[in-house]
Amino acid sequence: MSSRLEGKVVLITGGGSGIGQATAIELAKLGAHLAITDVNLEGAHDTYRLCGGKPHYCGVMDVSSKADVELRVSEIVAGLGRLDHVFNCAGINPTSYPLTDTTDEYWDKLVNVNLKGIYLVTRATIPHITTPGGSYVNVSSICGLYPQAEQAVYCATKHGVIGFSKSMALELGLKGVRTNVVAPGYIDTPTNSGVVKGEEYVTRMEEGNSLGRLGTPEEVAGVVAFLMSEKAKYMNGSVVEVHGGLKMLES
Ligand code: NAP
């Protein structure tokens, strides 16, 4: 069984930064042909370049827009021929707010990107995953399993991702398409600043971690690549936690 993804066509959302970008680079090394998308076209272009350019594809796609998703998915399939795997990575990291300070706009933004975005992309791509061994990897978070105070909206979206994905696994498993979830802990990415704010906070998180440090995007990317590979062909509906051993989860 191979860990390679030679010639496999993989759509990545949120591929212009952080975990999505690191995963694109990892999958390109494993031989995949990528459709790198992001709401931030400049970021997507950077990733495209870091992956070596052609045969990959790069384009803007806002996962919260049905029209955008449907248009871009048909363009990708027309260009790359089909889809084998989808990495639903686009998301907004949390900002800590007491519930009474949380705005409707914040709710709409997080729900529309983190949760509805996965729904829209999944619905649009299902008809195009037609070859055996296809799969989805959806990004949740440790907050999708272990709630944090003052992050109710983010926690709700990331719990939702897990429920949605487990149902997907049951429905699409019958067609031979697997769905798994990656649930990262605190990963050092550019826009995680809503949580990782300042030295003191970072130190507190490092001290609360059994490995004594934050994770890197590359350490999540390796797990995503494994979940897509043939080596994980009996994994379906699994939630893989990638957090280095958070001490607060011990009790
Ligand atoms: P990141 O560096 O901010 O990357 C996310 C990318 O998604 C950005 O390029 C962002 O563009 C893009 N994006 C935002 N809204 C979008 C939309 N509507 N449509 C398409 N793309 C959109 O974040 P990250 O830390 O790598 O996080 C990636 C995923 O992992 C997210 O779902 C996040 O919730 C999850 N996660 C992260 C951590 C962590 O510690 N970093 C932990 C657990 C889970 P802009 O920069 O222009 O907004």
Report on the architecture of this protein.
With 251 residues, the chain is an alpha/beta fold. The protein has a single domain (9-240), classed as 3-Layer(aba) Sandwich (Rossmann fold). The protein is 41% helix and 14% strand. The protein has helices at residues 18-29, 41-50, 66-80, 104-125, 152-173, 198-207, 217-228, and strands spanning 9-12, 33-38, 57-60, 85-88, 135-139, 178-184, 239-242. The protein has a 7-stranded parallel β-sheet with strand order 3-2-1-4-5-6-7, sandwiched between helices. Helix 1 (18-29) runs parallel beside helix 2. It is globular and about 45 Å long. NADP nicotinamide-adenine-dinucleotide phosphate (NAP) is lined by residues 13-14, 16-20, 38-40, 43, 61-64, 89-93, 113, 117, 139, 141, 184, 186-187, 189-192.
Shape: globular
Separation of termini?
A: 38 Å
Strand content: 5-15%
CATH superfamily: NAD(P)-binding Rossmann-like Domain
Rg, Å, rounded: 17 Å
Report the helical percentage. 40-55%
Count of strand segments:
7
CATH architecture: 3-Layer(aba) Sandwich
CATH topology: Rossmann fold
Structure class: alpha/beta
What do the pLDDT scores average to? 94
Which stretches are poorly predicted, pLDDT < 50 over at least 5 residues? none
Number of helical regions: 7
Q: Biggest β-sheet: count, sense, barrel?
A: 7 strands, parallel
- Enumerate the distinct ligands: NADP nicotinamide-adenine-dinucleotide phosphate
Return the string of H and E elements.
EHEHEHEHEHEHHE
